[in-house]
Design a protein that fits this description.
With about 325 residues, this protein is mainly alpha-helical. It has helices spanning about 10-35, 45-55, 55-85, 100-105, 105-125, 125-130, 145-155, 160-175, 185-210, 225-235, 245-250, 255-280, 290-315; strands spanning about 135-140, 220, 240. Helix 1 (about 10-35) packs across helix 13 (about 290-315), helix 3 (about 55-85) runs antiparallel to helix 5 and helix 7 (about 145-155) packs across helix 9.
């Protein structure tokens, strides 16, 4: 098996640099997750998700982040394979080294983390880009379409529902189709009215079921089909995933909570070695600082574990 010839030290340095970047990102991600615990009907968390989903700099960063994840995984596996190939004949007796157990499990914990990340992307990132269905929300003000409001006013003026009014217009246009030019334009106009009617029905369902945020600025609990309708009829409405609701709903399941906690136990084992390893590979440690780095690593890993773990536990307990 022939692999590209890059020195092992170079690969280790790349893994360390990418790993250090991911260590910083985890702190940022953990802090954002804690917004879910605020009892503000998701105002802070939704505002954060809105910013992350609409800012073009963040969108570029997301692509970079995905690339960094992929690069970290590929480099780590590449390093493991090349190290294995460098010694095809194993030792007759296993070595008794002082290497921490988490170090020996780095590749396997990394593979488990990668598998769980794929599921995490399915729940959130893939929902945002439309590959997976979820629940959505839209700014109330973006549904204030002038033509739609005019249609509702006309319907009320004549004592009809919007749908009855559209049916009446359609029947009249069909009766006079032979005497009126531009029948296709009339049909297109009626089709446009029916599209507007679909939006009216979405708004009416929101009022009927009170699917509004506490400040009434967002309509929530939109289905995937309703999102597609809004994107077609009112492209500027730009519905967004309702991540706050999806997180809260997902952590109502004890099974999901337990699996989430087990996942972060694996992350803890991975980080337990990753933190000091970054300093060691980059040559930033020595006998004076090793103890401090070890302590900081333990503090970091437990802060990350507890910061992520507290969210599903408290949500499940209704706090």
């Amino acid at each position: 098996m022939d692999l590209p010839k890059i020195h092992s030290i170079t690969k280790k340095l790349l893994v360390a640099l990418v790993g250090g970047f991911l260590l910083i990102f985890l702190l940022f991600h953990m802090t954002a997750n804690l917004f879910v615990l605020r009892h503000d009907d998701g105002a802070w968390y939704s505002a954060f998700c809105h910013f992350m989903g609409t800012n073009w700099i963040v969108k570029i960063f997301e692509i970079v982040l995905l690339g960094v994840f992929a690069l970290h995984i590929l480099l780590t596996l590449w390093l493991a394979v090349t190290n294995r190939l460098a010694r095809p004949v194993r030792y007759h007796e296993s070595q008794r080294s002082k290497t921490h157990n988490s170090s020996k499990l780095m590749v396997w914990t990394g593979i488990l983390i990668f598998a769980c990340l794929i599921m995490h992307f399915c729940d959130f990132y893939f929902v945002k880009i439309g590959w997976v269905k979820g629940e959505y929300m839209v700014k109330t003000e973006k549904l204030q379409d002038a033509e739609m409001m005019q249609m509702m006013q006309f319907a009320q003026q004549y004592g009809m529902t919007p749908e009855e009014m559209i049916n009446e217009i359609e029947s009249q246009s069909a009766m006079s189709a032979e005497d009126v030019d531009g029948t296709d334009e009339t049909a297109n106009y009626i089709a446009g009215l029916r599209d507007k009617l679909a939006v009216v029905n979405i708004v009416e369902r929101a009022y009927r079921e009170d699917n509004f945020s506490a400040d009434r600025q967002w309509i929530r609990h939109l289905t995937y089909d309703e999102r597609q309708t809004l994107k077609k009829v009112l492209p500027e409405s730009d519905p967004e995933p309702d991540f706050y609701f999806m997180v809260r709903e997902k952590f109502q399941s004890l099974y999901i909570v337990v699996m989430y906690l087990l996942f972060f136990v694996v992350v803890l084992l991975h980080l337990r070695h990753a933190f000091p390893s970054v300093f060691q590979t980059l040559g930033l440690n020595n006998y004076k600082y090793n103890c401090a780095i070890e302590v900081c690593g333990k503090i970091y890993t437990w802060v990350i574990f507890l910061g992520f773990a507290i969210v599903p536990v408290l949500v499940y307990l209704g706090l």
